[in-house]
Each structure stands twice: as C-alpha cells, then as structure tokens.
Design a protein that fits this description.
The complex is a heterodimer. By secondary structure, chain A is of the alpha/beta class. Chain A has two domains: 169 residues, HUPs (Rossmann fold, 3-Layer(aba) Sandwich); 117 residues, Rossmann fold (3-Layer(aba) Sandwich). In chain A, helix 1 links the parallel strand 1 and strand 2. In chain A, helix 5 packs parallel to helix 8. Chain A starts with a strand and ends with a helix. Chain B has a single domain, classed as HUPs (Rossmann fold, 3-Layer(aba) Sandwich), CATH 3.40.50.620. Chain B is of the alpha/beta class. Classes of the chains: A alpha/beta, B alpha/beta. Strand 16 of chain A pairs parallel with strand 13 of chain B, so a sheet runs across the interface.
C-alpha cells in the first residue's frame, strides 16, 4: 500500500497534529509513504523528515498561504494521482475533515473518517471507527482505490523516530488553483498553553464555573500548575464561560492525554465521547451521583472552590 | 434566491442506541426517529434567511425510503416551501449521497445549499465537502455565523484553532455547526399548513444516478467499557496516588 500523508499546516507552518497520521503510515506501510505539506514559505518542514518517509514533498505558492479547502484540495488530488497513492491520510482535525472529504469528491474515492483501526481481510480493507456519537464502534468494509482516510489521533499516537532523514523535495503547485474562497481572519486559540489535542495533561471545566474569570482562575490555574492544556464542556462553551475551540466532546475535540482532570463536569455521553480514551481520568465534582465518576480512575466528591486552590498549592509546593 | 437544504432521517439524539443481536446494525424496533439535528440547524438558517427577505424559496430534500416523508413533513412544518424525496432502498455511502444531491442541485439550480456538518448516526462529516467538489463550488464547513452580502457569503467557521472567517461567492455549499442558531419548535399551525405543501417523490434513476455504496457498515459493537476507579478523600491522597500509583505527575 502506498500512502500519501497530508501534513496539517496553517499555510505558514507545519503542525505536530500531523504526527498520528505518520504513525499510521509507519504501521501500515513502513517503506512506502510520502508526506505532502502545502502552504506558502512553509516553516517547520524539518519536523516531518525524521520518520522514514520516502520523500517529504512541499508545495509553496502565494495562493496557498491560508488553509482553504477549495485551494488545497486540487493540490492533494494532483499529487495523489501522480504518486499513484492507494491511501490519502491525515489526522482527524477540522483542517483534514474540511479538506480531505473534498479531495475524496475530486478523486471519486471512498472515504473513511476518524478511524481507530484498519485491517485487510480477504483483500478488502476493513476499518473501525466510532459511530452514534462514539456510543458504538462500527466496522466498515471499503472497496475501490484510492481510499481517503482521516485517522483518530489518540488511536495512532506518535511515530517512531528513524535514524535517517527523508529528503525534502519542492514540488510545483498545479495550474489553475481556484481562488474563489477568500480567507479573512482567525480569532482565538493560543494563550501560551499546550495544544489541547497534543497535551500530556488536560484540565477541563464545566458549567458551574460561572464566568470566564472564574473558569480561568480555577481551570486555567490548575492546568498551569500541571503544565497542561485547558478544555471545557459544551455547556460551559454555550454559556460563554470558555471559548469554542476548548470544547471537548462529540461536537468538539477528541483528546486522550496521560491525565485528564474533569472539574465540575457531569459527564454527559457527548463529553465522554471526546475524552474517555484518556489514560488516567480524575473527576472532581460536588455531586456524588455525577456520571463522570463511572469512568474516573480517581474521584473526589468535593466543592471545587475549596479543593482546586488546595490542589494548585500542593502541586506548586511539592514539584518533583 | 432559492436555498436547498438536505435533511437526513436519523435516530432521535436522545434515544438509547444498542447493537442488534447479530451485531450487523443497531436495534431499530420502536426506535424514535428524527431530523438530523445539524440539518435542522441548516434548515432553521435557511428559513430565517427567507424571513429576513434574503431568500425567496426554501426546498428540503431527503434521500431514503418512504418513511423519510416524516422528516420532510417536519421540514415543511418548520417553514420549508416544498420538499423532494429521492426514494431508494439501495445502500448508500457518503459519496453516493453526494452524487444524488448533486443531481438534485443541478435540477433545482439553487443559489445556496445548506446542510448539517455531519449526521449523528455515522458521524462521517463528508457529504457537504464531496458535493462541493463534484459541483466545483466553494465551500464553508462548520459554520457558526452566515452573513449574505452582494452575491457572496461571509461565514464564520468553528475550527480547532478558533473562529475562522471566510468570504465565498455564491452559489456555494455551507455546512452548519451547532452554534449557528437554535432551531424553532414547530407550531401546530405549521404542522397543519405543512399538509398542503408539495412533497414530490422521485427516484435516483429519474435523476440519472445509479447509487453504488463502496463503504459498507458490516459490524456494530459496544466500545470496551471503562470501569469506575476509587474515591479519594482529599487532595493529598489524590496527588499521592497520581504520583505513586498512576505515575502521571
């Protein structure tokens, strides 16, 4: 199987979110995969060269300075055809969901979204993926070539570093990139904390945190004490307490950190869908009946306003 | 301006879903069905655009068995002007749905097509983008705000990195995210009025499409359960266990 891995970029820089897709390629086709990175004056390409890819292709063009699906899709389709790729793969994110389904449409190729496992049985590819808001796991058989796939980050983890460096090859953008869609702005994100989907520790807060200041003080404070990222429930986001991009759950992000601390999070099915693959789950909730305790490794029934400051203090005073 | 909205019949989002005995599908006996919530948001947006005088007609389309008429009647009761059922019992995957919708689009020639970003049964999040590719139209997925101006749409999108704003010329495909709006409750007068609104039934063959699903669901299972752990009495015990037992801090 020849795999084309699409690197995630914001048009200017390669994102580490690409790594699970490279881990997937290493497992499924260790000697035969190529990485494609698209943008304009792309930075960080060297972060892709240490994992055994045959080639890291870079396509730089002023029309590709922002990650617009309408502009990127023909580039991906062009190189998928030229390389004769059997699979076109990226880590599941809003970037890849937006772009790769358009690529599948251009290539008339079947697509599997957010897969957690892939096997070949009787010459047919069969993939597992969460369905019905991750309440169930479905097995899907797919026929046809190529196949487009997004792979669920937490299921594939990080790729193994290799001793050799993959060659970086600058490639031309195909002619006639459509430029109808126009990028205007991006608001939010950042804040100096680790990326939610990549962080080793995630601290999430729910609706009881009252307002943005309280949320930042308690949830942000605990996250900082652990060097972690901040997450939020849909209810907290809907109430305007936390920004949209922090939402963990079925309609938000899927995370699987080493440590997930849920503070005043009841544990709705749709929230659990986004975090239940975490290695260790801690729940702090004043309601002893909260469903979150059914999935938590460690549960503390307590008032967050009392115990979170205690916890922050304890972590700060006993580092190492 | 005409707006086309696709509407998928899915299990009610609050229904309990479990695998059937053979593990080939979900238990469907007595299962309450509904309009896919993201499609309902798309429909609400289309109806609001009509109410604001920006659109003149809202057409709802669904694909599937005769039972999908139920969801189309809901769409009409909400405020769609007419409905189209592309009736088929053939198995469908996202690409075959996109091809059927492309045929409906070509027949209807709307200036805007709205749909949910994904359906809450298969959670694929593919059809809108595939349709945009097939029709060679601009797309804006995961929309949380849509403003129409001078033949284009300014769309705010919910991305992993924050709210991204795009401008796309019409005609275009826009897929709705959760926070685009809150769909209205259907009033009784709407239900009564919906009975007299046109609901046309056509077949894929009449549209010149032969659906062929290349992605097929073959097995359904419950995910491995995570078992509840232990209760701790205070933060000191918690930190000690995280250090010494779980070794994550």
């Amino acid at each position: 199987m020849k795999i084309l891995v699409l690197a995630e970029t914001d048009g200017g820089r390669v994102s580490e979110k690409t790594l699970p897709a490279i881990a997937f390629a290493q497992q499924k086709s260790p000697d035969n995969f190529t990485v494609l990175a698209i943008g304009d004056s792309l930075q960080g390409v060297e972060s892709l060269t240490g994992y055994g890819a045959q080639t890291v292709l870079t396509v730089n063009h002023p029309a590709l300075a922002k990650p617009l699906a309408e502009r990127y899709a023909p580039v991906v389709a062009h190189y998928a055809r030229q390389l004769g790729a059997d699979a076109i793969v990226a880590t599941t994110t809003t970037f890849s969901r937006d772009l790769l389904a358009r690529v599948a449409g251009l290539l008339d190729a079947p697509m599997l979204s957010d897969i957690t496992a892939l096997e070949t049985t009787n010459g047919k590819l069969a993939a597992k993926r969460p369905i019905y808001s991750a309440n169930l796991i479905g097995t899907f058989e797919v026929e046809g070539n190529p196949v487009v796939m997004t792979v669920r980050g937490p299921s594939w983890g990080k790729p193994e570093p290799k001793g050799t460096q993959s060659p970086v090859q600058a490639a031309e953008a195909p002619a006639n990139i459509p430029t109808r869609s126009e990028w205007i702005s991006l608001q939010g994100g950042g804040g100096g904390r680790p990326d939610l989907t990549q962080a080793r520790v995630v601290v999430s807060g729910g609706r009881p945190l009252k307002d943005p200041e309280t949320f930042e003080k308690y949830i942000g404070g605990l996250a900082d004490a652990l060097g972690g990222a901040v997450g939020a429930t849909r209810a907290a986001v809907d109430a305007g307490i936390a920004p949209n991009e922090l939402q963990v759950g079925q309609t938000g992000k899927t995370v699987a950190p080493e440590l997930y601390i849920a503070v005043a999070v009841s544990g709705s099915v749709q929230h659990l869908a986004g975090m239940k693959d975490s290695k260790v789950i801690v729940a702090i909730n004043i309601d002893p009946e909260a469903p979150i305790f059914q999935v938590a490794d460690y549960g503390l029934v307590a008032d967050l306003y009392q115990v979170v400051p205690e916890l922050i203090e304890l972590l700060k005073n006993s580092k190492g | 301006m005409k707006i086309l909205v696709s509407v998928k019949r899915v299990p009610d989002p609050y229904a309990k879903i479990s695998p059937n005995a053979a593990g080939t599908d979900i238990h469907r006996d007595g299962l309450q069905m509904a309009v896919n919530p993201f499609d309902e948001i798309a429909l609400e947006e289309a109806i609001r655009l009509k109410e604001a005088g920006k659109a003149t007609e809202v057409v709802a389309v669904s694909i599937g068995g005769a039972e999908c008429q139920e969801q189309l009647r809901t769409a009409l009761a909400m405020g769609a002007d007419r409905a189209i059922l592309v009736q088929t019992d053939a198995p469908l995957d996202a690409l075959s749905v996109a091809k059927i919708l492309a045929a409906v689009y070509r027949r209807e020639q709307p200036q805007l097509m709205l749909m949910g970003k994904q359906a809450i049964d298969m959670d694929e999040n593919q059809v809108g983008q595939m349709l945009a590719a097939i029709l060679d139209l601009p797309q804006a997925t995961f929309a949380s705000k849509i403003t129409l101006e001078d033949g284009s749409a300014v769309v705010e999108r919910e991305t992993d990195n924050g709210i991204e704003t795009l401008r796309i010329p019409l005609p275009a495909i826009i897929t709705a995210d959760l926070r685009l709006n809150e769909p209205r409750y259907v009033a009784l007068t709407g239900i009564v009025r919906a009975r007299s609104k046109p609901l046309e039934t056509i077949t894929p063959a009449e549209l010149g499409v032969q659906p062929h699903a290349r992605v097929r669901l073959t097995h359904v299972e419950a995910p491995p359960a995570r078992k509840a752990g232990k209760r701790v009495s205070d933060v000191h015990e918690l930190v000690r266990l995280l250090r010494e037992e779980a070794r994550v801090i």
